[in-house]
Each structure stands twice: as C-alpha cells, then as structure tokens.
Design a protein that fits this description.
heterodimer; A: Sulfite Reductase Hemoprotein, domain 2; Sulfite Reductase Hemoprotein, domain 1; 3 domains; 5-stranded antiparallel β-sheet; B: alpha+beta; 6-stranded antiparallel β-sheet; 22% helix; 4Fe-4S (chain A); iron (chain A); heme (chain A); metal-binding (chain A)
C-alpha cells in the first residue's frame, strides 16, 4: 500500500491544525456560518437533515487493517457505532458533533487518512476497480497511476475552483467494474501495437439529471503523458465550463454542447503546448510508486481445487458464498472475496464498528493486510488463499457478514435518500429493504441470476439508478413519494442509460413492480444463462412495459 | 401557517423555535406563525441569525391536524421523526450546552 511521504504527512497535518482552529473560531463566534460553511465543506463536513455528516476519502478504495480499525474507532467514539460505505468508495459518518470533528480528523491523520477534497468543485477521490491488483482479467493494476493522479490533483492550485465537481474513475481490466464511462473522465487500460500499456481516455460521462455515456477522446495515452493530457482536459473545462448555471456546469454538458471534435481540438491544442514539459511522468517515479503496490508475498499452495457443487450439497450457504462472493484471482490458488454489506432487510453499505474490526482482523490474517471498498457499497478481501476460504467465511459469518448475495438481485446500490440526505426528494433505504425481503430466498435469487438494481432518492443519481439493469428513482409528487422505474441501464463497458417505461409507483407497489419485471424476464429468456440485461437487449422494451403496465 | 426550523450549530440536530423564543427539539413545541405574522417571523429569523447558533434556518409550511402540527413536506416530517429506517436509535439530541434561545 502507498505510505505517506513527508509532504503528504505535513500537508494533512497542517490541514488538521487549520481546520481545528477554524472550528474553534466558529464555536467562539469569531466566524459566521457564511464564512465557515465553505471551510467545513473543504474538509468533508456537510450538514444533512438530522445532523452533520463527515465524508472520509478512501483513496481508490484501498484500506489497510489499521485504517479500518481507525474507522471503527471513529464510529464508536464519536458517532453511533457504524459507518456508511458509498459509491465513491468513501465512508460517511452520519452523526458527528462539530466539536469532535478536529479530533476525528487528527485520529484519521494518524493512519494517513483525511477528508480533503471530498466536497467542493475540485477533483474528488479517484475510484478504481475494487479487484485492482488482484483480478485475473487485469492488464495492469491501476492504483499506482491513481495514486499519482491523487498527488497531482490534491490542492492543485489551478483546479480548486472548477465550474463543478470532477470525478475520475479507472479500470485496469477490459471488463469495467468501475463504471468509468459514467465519470467526468474515465480511464481504461489499453495495450498498443507495440505492446506497451497506456490509457484509453473517455470524457464527459456522468449521471445526474442529464445522464451521458463518456466519449472516447483519445484511444491511447502513455503513462508518461497522462498527467499532461488530464491537465489539458481540466484546463479546457476550467476555461469554458458553464459557471452560469449549476445544472449545466459539469464537463459532460460542455462536451455535449461543443461537440466531441471541437472539445478534442481544444484539448489537443493545449496538450501540444504542455506535452513533454513539467508534467511528464518520469518512469522512475512510476516505478517508485509501483513499489508500494507490489504484489504480496503469495504462498505456493500447489493445485487447489474447490468443488463448489459438492460444497453446495454439504453446506448450501457456504456453497452459495463460493459461487457468488469469490472472484477469479490472477495468482493460482487465490481468490478475491466480496464481503456483502447488503444483508436482507438492512441498510445497503452500512457496517458496524464491530464488523469493521472483524473485517480488519480477517484482512490481517488472510488477505495480506489489504482491504477494498467497492463502488457497489461492498468490501473486498483481495487476496485470499483458496485453502483459507472456509476460515474467512466462518469469520464473516460470526460477524454477520456472510451474506452470499454478491452480484444478485439483493446486492443493490442505494443512496442514503430522504432518511438522511438534505437534497433527496424520496426515501431509498426502505425501498431497498422491501425489495431485499421480497427476494430473500436464495433459490429465487439464484434463479434470477446476475441482476443489478440501483436506487436513487433524487435526480442527482448518487444511487446510479440510470445504470441499473433495473433503476429506481424516487421523486416527490404532491406530497407523496413516487418511484420511477427504468430498465436497461448498464454501468459496464457496454455502457447504457436505462429507459423510463411509464408512470411511477408508490412505495408499496415497488416490490410487486420489480417482481413483475423479473417474472417477465424469466418467462422470456432464451435459457437460464441469458442474463436480465442480455434478455432486455434482445427483446427491447415491449415485454417489460407490458409487465409493468399491462396491455393497454 | 409556518414554523421556523433549523439545525443547532454544535450538534447539527434539527430544532424548532417555540413561542418563548427557545429552540427546542420537539416539532410539537414549535410556534406556529399565522399569515399575518410575517413580521414576527422575519424578526425571529434575524434574532436567531444574530446568535450564530442555529444554521440552515428555514420557514416551513404546516397545517394543524388533530395530531398537532403537520408539516406539508415529507422531508420535514422525516426531519421531525428521524430516519425511518433507523439502525439503533432516533434523532440527534442536544447536550446541555446546545440549547439556544433568542
């Protein structure tokens, strides 16, 4: 894992000191709320419906056991004993008191964590594939380059007041698990004709009120030129992005209004000027950062075969866990394990302090001290020996974390919604809870197969509803919460925005509506191997529209 | 009819202005301002602003029902109750030094 150098440590330490004094002055009445608000937001401290919310960055979703234990400590000492993992691979605490925030940030700094740039119109936490560094299908581990982007974008003087927030996502694998085409910039590892690895750059993707699939602006940018290329994009955006209208201020609108060719022309012109200059990444520096992400000291376990079918007979719950929650690892004899934070009837993404500590213990014992947060609001033990899977499963079960539903219908992304969020128009968590109870039976979930439901409580789309195979968007209409259902969204490399098929439903009707969509899919699929999204692509809207609204 | 609500500075807790000028946790204790009390409402906002101790001050439309004060927006009803899908508890509460008066 990356370790802070003296610059990182000094910069985070200074910020804690500054913010502590700002909090003190606010409480003493020396700063007004108008003066204080931008300062607290710069440090990840929001005000929500019931209390403050502190958002803490988890750079590219990578955590050590020590860091996870500190999050548990924060949850227990300053909050209500739990935290909420988000689609930005970050964690949020929902109940901190203002006076405690300096102490929280100081505790976090002691394990190289912070809340800087988790809010505001700047470059936010870079997100990556949660299996980065572990996945069998990976061309390259994207995290060293993500770390370099973090360093470049942290307090970048030119890009602290962009027209709007800016999100970069990366995948080192051609199978995109990081939704890179729905970010302001998406980077996808590519191999060129000479066999060198670099980055395909997508720009202008996003969700929110104007969902857009990112457009390919450059098919291959070498590592050494990547920062100059990113800087060129940011500079053009910073210059021309619309500051007159908050709803049109994201880069997706600029790219859309200008047209890709025009935008690209501007970027290329900028790039021609700065290419080969101060932002050229020395390959020694890349090597130096890569050393922090060196492969762990894998043991050679020889040939290990796990007979999942046999395990399913012996212990169906464990068999199901093996089937759903393990992911092919690049190293023979190992697996990446998804820890589902989606218990039936639970709040998606929540973990208690005790659960965080249990996960930290398991990471230390069985996963080379490494943990990941996924954008799907789960955790990952990235490097587990196949011979340890049973022990890991038992450890997770003891902590109430052995739900074997990764990738299934009950593994939903859900924003906090109107239960917490000051921007929401409708609740999300109770909808997710109802749906998960409806589809709780393992046999039923297995019959349905891979299906992604994503729920947002407002048009800002934190719950990624546009890219759910089934998406649910909560709106308020005449004092009632109403839920629009979309079908056909896809956050993967086959990026697509879901379509609204008709009028919305009241909360009580949502589980039935989802059930009708699922039944229509099962009735129409060509064979049990055809997934929901594949069936939708083949069949189009008609059968799903009929399932929701009848034949009229 | 309107009530005044905001969040107390130190705790962030949702609070309501009562008839005696105290910011309280209970919605039902809130002072209800009639249509002809716009001036009093503005004065209360200004006085609260001057304390610097209540943030995100908003006036909210309510109606009176048999059960008492009923905010028209769902958002306000949830703010008054706490999360409807709670993990272990209800709303943020005020510590002794977190009560504000104007």
């Amino acid at each position: 894992m990356y370790r802070y150098d003296e610059f990182d440590a000094a910069f985070v330490g200074e910020r804690v000191t500054q913010f502590s004094d700002q909090v003190r002055r606010r409480i003493a009445g020396e700063l007004t709320e108008e003066q204080f608000r931008p300062l607290r937001l710069m440090n990840g401290l929001y005000l929500q419906l019931h209390a403050y919310m502190l958002r803490i960055a988890v750079p590219y979703g990578t955590l050590s056991a020590r860091q996870m234990r500190m999050l548990a400590h924060v949850a227990r000492t300053y909050d209500r004993g739990y935290g909420h993992f988000t689609t930005r691979q970050n964690i949020q605490f929902n109940w901190p008191k203002l006076r405690d925030v300096p102490a929280i940030l100081s505790d976090l700094a002691s394990v190289e964590m912070h809340s800087i740039q988790t809010s505001g119109n700047c470059v936010r936490n870079v997100t990556v594939d949660q299996f980065a560094g572990a996945a069998a299908d990976e061309i390259i581990d994207p995290r060293p380059v993500a770390e370099i982007i973090r360093q470049w974008s942290s307090l970048h003087p030119e890009f602290i007041y962009l027209p709007r927030k800016f999100k970069i996502a990366m995948t080192g694998s051609p199978n995109d698990r990081a939704a890179v085409k729905f970010h302001d910039i998406g980077l996808m590892a590519q191999t060129n004709r000479e066999g060198a690895v670099g980055w395909a750059v997508y720009v202008g993707g996003g969700l929110g009120r104007t969902p857009m699939v990112g457009k390919l602006i450059n098919g291959f940018v070498a590592h050494e030129h990547l920062l100059a290329y990113l800087e060129s994009i940011l500079r053009v955006y910073n210059r021309y992005g619309r500051r007159d209208n908050k709803f049109k201020a994201r880069i997706k609108i600029l790219v859309h209004e200008e047209g890709l060719e025009n935008f690209k022309g501007q970027v290329e012109q900028e790039f021609a000027e700065i290419r080969g200059g101060v932002l050229t990444l020395p390959l020694e520096e890349l090597d130096r950062i890569e050393a922090y992400f060196a492969e762990p000291d894998y043991a050679d376990h020889g040939v290990v075969a796990i007979d999942v079918e046999r395990e399913k007979i012996l212990d169906p719950a464990f068999g199901r866990f093996l089937e759903n929650n393990t992911f092919p690892h690049k190293r023979a004899g190992y697996s990446a394990v998804t820890i589902s934070l989606k218990p039936i009837g639970g709040a998606p993404g929540d973990a208690t302090a005790e659960q965080m500590e249990a996960v930290a213990d398991l990471a230390e014992r069985y996963s080379f001290d490494e943990l990941r947060v996924s954008h799907e609001q789960n955790l990952v033990l990235p490097h587990v020996a196949l011979t340890d899977l049973r022990a890991v499963y038992d450890g997770l079960a003891a902590a109430g974390l052995a739900d074997a539903n990764a990738g299934e219908i009950t593994d939903m992304i859900t924003c906090p919604g109107l239960d917490y969020c000051a921007l929401a128009n409708a609740r999300s968590i109770p909808i997710a809870q109802d749906i998960s109870r409806r589809f709780a039976a393992p046999e039923r979930a297995r019959e349905i197969g891979k299906l992604k439901i994503k729920i947002s409580g407002c048009i800002n789309a934190c719950g990624h509803h546009h890219v759910g195979h089934i998406g649910i968007l909560g709106v308020e209409k005449k004092g009632t919460e109403l839920y629009q259902i979309t079908v056909g969204g896809d956050g993967s490399e086959d990026a697509a925005v879901g379509k609204i098929l008709g009028p919305g439903f009241v909360a009580d009707e949502v589980p039935n509506a989802i059930e009708r969509l699922v039944d229509a899919y099962i009735a129409e699929r060509s064979d049990p191997g055809e997934t929901f999204i594949a069936a939708y692509r083949r069949l189009g809207d008609a059968p799903f529209k009929e399932a929701l609204y009848g034949n009229g | 009819m309107k009530i005044l609500t905001g969040n107390e500075l130190l705790s962030g807790a949702a609070v309501y202005l009562d008839a005696r000028g105290n910011w309280r946790e209970a919605l039902q204790e809130a002072r209800v301002f009639g249509k002809d009390e716009a001036e009093a409402l503005e004065a209360a906002i200004a006085a609260t602003h001057a304390t610097g101790r209540v943030i995100s001050i908003e006036s909210e439309d309510v109606q009176m029902t048999e059960a008492g004060i009923h905010p028209l927006r769902i958002r306000e009803r949830i703010r008054a109750q706490g999360p409807t899908a709670p993990r272990f508890f209800d709303r943020q509460t005020l510590a002794e030094d977190e009560y504000v008066s104007i």
